[in-house]
Every structure is written in structure tokens, then in C-alpha cells.
What we know:
Elements: E1 2-6, H1 15-24, E2 29-33, H2 45-50, H3 52-63, E3 68-73, H4 83-103, E4 107-110, H5 133-161, E5 164-167, H6 178-188, E6 192-196, H7 198-204, H8 208-215, E7 219-224, E8 226-229, H9 231-237, E9 253-256, H10 264-276, E10 282-285, H11 294-313
Parallel strand pairs: 1-2, 1-10, 2-3, 3-4, 4-5, 5-6, 6-7, 7-10
Antiparallel strand pairs: 8-9
Helix pairs in contact: 8-10, 10-11
Amino acid sequence: xxxxxxxxxxxxxxxxxxxxxxxxxxxxxxxxxxxxxxxxxxxxxxxxxxxxxxxxxxxxxxxxxxxxxxxxxxxxxxxxxxxxxxxxxxxxxxxxxxxxxxxxxxxxxxxxxxxxxxxxxxxxxxxxxxxxxxxxxxxxxxxxxxxxxxxxxxxxxxxxxxxxxxxxxxxxxxxxxxxxxxxxxxxxxxxxxxxxxxxxxxxxxxxxxxxxxxxxxxxxxxxxxxxxxxxxxxxxxxxxxxxxxxxxxxxxxxxxxxxxxxxxxxxxxxxxxxxxxxxxxxxxxxxxxxxxxxxxxxxxxxxxxxxxxxxxxxxxxxxx
Length: 320
């Protein structure tokens, strides 16, 4: 496993400045945003695909520094009921797959998407319970009419370009937990796996270690981000929380830098679980901590994870 970072944290830096900054802090990999919700500050797939000189210069920026690209990320909703949004996100996904193939990057990261409740919807509809029966009908319609047909088609694209898609399970999308991630893979093929972000599992009450082991070789890429549960607010309101992320004092949970939601023992168990399933990819730091600046959160995450990865990596598994 190699320690890396989701480079959209440093969108205000140029590509070269970002890579130098990452290299100075001892990281080996970067995850690059290519559009969708995460933007494309360091990489515009359409431009690079259209200009071989720009593409070569882009590649050299990484090769000259000995830094690998762990994934190209275009988190979006290609199933959005607003066709303009859906088409934009789908086009970015297709271009990102093509660019990944040219660069020799194995993983493209995005969301599963979330449709509306019918062909007449204006906004995505995410269902969280089975009753009244309307909700079950909507979920069945979404999967059968939208989700499975779309991803079966994209599996053909992935096969053509020899690329994998790492779907990030995230509340608000049809794939949000272990079960839905495995269902999509089962329905649409083994080029579809997951980008595993423990922060989304923590606040839904799941055990990341159990989920990692259940996913096994379907886990293609890993985000390092934490969640802190507020016991008082959660005891009053549960974990379904639509308040702004900025309203930290009143939310049931908030995203934190690794180590600030759960302690070292928990994160050691997570890294060990990745070893158990023989995960060889990146540990990609993502920062959404409202209590820390980007540089502070990033630096603390690097120091925290470097110690764990080095110590865990030094151990020989007894059955090896």
C-alpha cells in the first residue's frame, strides 16, 4: 500500500506546485479530479485527449517526480433526472475512462448516481425506508429502469478501454453501503468495484473492517477520511441529518481528519483489514474537516497514517 492524497484539496495550486508539495511530504501517489462535483483544476480530459503534446507534458509532470496516479476521479450523477446535468456528468465519465486508458491508470472513481422517482422528476430521490409501499416501488423502479441498464452499458465501455470503475458508496446515491455496492457489481460485472471511504460507513453505523472483508477484491481504491459522531445530538436526532456541514455544533456527525473521529486502534484495524484482503492500492487522503485548514488536516493525516502504515507493513502475516 502507498500513501497518497486526493489532489482536489490543492486546486488553488498549479499541477506542478501541487506535485512538488506532495512529493516534499513523502507521498507516492495522487488521485486527480477530472470533473463532475470535484472539478478539474489539474486535469481536463477533453483537452488532453485532443492534444498529444499537452498529454505528454501532463504525463511528464508525474514521471519526472516519481509520483503515480492512483485514480482519476469524476464524482458525478450520470443518472440525474435533469438531463443537462446527467449528460454533462456522463460525458466527463466517458472522457475520463478514455484518458485513464491512455495514461495506464487502472481506476476511475465516481458515484453510482441517483435517479428521480419517475421519468417526470426534476431532482434525485434517495429512499431510506421501505414503507409506505411507494418507497419500495420507487427503489425497484430506479434499479431496474435506470441503474442496472446504465451500468451494464458502461461496463462495455470499461471493457473496451481496459479500465475499472470504483464506485464510492455514499448516502444520497443508490449505492451507499456494502450490500448495494455488491449488488451493482453482481448485476453489471467485475469491472465495477468500490472506492471505500470509511467516513461514510462510520456515520451510518457500519463497521468498516467488516465491510472491507465482505467486499474483498471488489475494493479497488481507498479514501482516508474520518467521521466524528456527536453523542448528545445523535441521542436526540439519530444519524440522518440534513443540517449544513457548517453547523458543526448542532449536527449529529461531522467529517474529520483521520484520527480525530476514531483512534489509532480503529485505524490500525482498518489498515490490517486491507492487508487481509491483499489490497495493494493507495491510501488516498481526503480532507473535509470543518475544524481544520486544508494544510493542517492534510499534514496531520499524513503523519498519523505514515506511522500506522509503516508499522503495520513491517509485520509478517502469520499465514504468509
